[in-house]
Amino acid sequence: EISDTEAVRIKPRERSKLNWDDKLTIEINGDRPQCAAIRIEPDQRVPTLFLTGNSTVVDQDEEPWASWGQMIPRFFDAEVCFANYAESGECADTFIRAGRLKKALSQMKPGDYMFMEFGHNDQKHPHLQAYNGYPENLRRFIAEIRAKKALPILATPIARNVWTEQNGKLTYNDLLHDHAQACIALGKELNVPVLDLHQAAMEDIIRLGRDASKAYYHQ
Fold first, then answer.
1. What is the phi/psi pair of residue 97, to 5°?
2. Which CA distances in Å does 182 have to 81, 132, 149, 165, 192?
């Protein structure tokens, strides 16, 4: 549990974000935004789905940046609550060391869920490769989530849109294959559900091709 004397080690760029200003900010938009009334009260019946990960999950502040983490609530009704703790640039390792996991766990109740999607930034560090530090850090997530009597759910990293062109022919480069496979293997070993976002994204990239896929990757 995170204590009153502890704090999440946020990044300088986060200091001006709404996530950390100790206020509740509500945005109402659409073609004809309207609001008659707002009432806020706690509802302990509703399970919370905690989201952890990197820039592919975080609530992006500026358009056209977006992530699956900030879009997924629209597919659920008021019987589910989402709490997005993801942050750009995070590995599973740095997420733990910054106190982000501890902060999320401090808000978790039995019956809640935590989704974990890491790999993009882990891949950049020799000690966080697919078959050493990366799965070991996810093991810690899973153990601590289960200790709270909540349910862990793994997600493989979203595929990158990276291609090689040679002799006029484009070939897709699956740079996150090993991390995705390590995530799937860990899920099987520990009996944790796995959302294979990597495979789904890769199939779309290959179907659309490099140039058409750029629309989804802000390239």
1. -65, -25
2. 29, 10, 25, 28, 13
- Retrieve residue 199's tokens: 């495979």
Angle between helices 177-190 and 133-147 (to 10 degrees): 40
Residue 120 near residue 158, CB atoms below 8 Å = yes
- The predicted pLDDT at position 2 comes to 63
One-character DSSP codes across the chain? ---TT------GGGTTSGGGSSS------SSS---S-------TTSPEEEEEESTTTS---STT---HHHHGGGGS-TT-EEEE---TT--HHHHHHTTHHHHHHHT--TT-EEEEE--TTGGGSGGG-TTTHHHHHHHHHHHHHHHTT-EEEEEPPPPP--EEEETTEEEE--TTHHHHHHHHHHHHHHT--EE-HHHHHHHHHHHH-HHHHGGGTT-
pLDDT band at 4 (very low <50, low <70, confident <90, very high): low
Mean pLDDT, the chain, rounded, equals 92
Residue-wise pLDDT for 163-175, tens only, equals: 999 888 999 999 9
Strand partners, 49: 82, 113
Q: Which residues contact 78 (CB under 8 A, 6 or more apart)?
A: 46
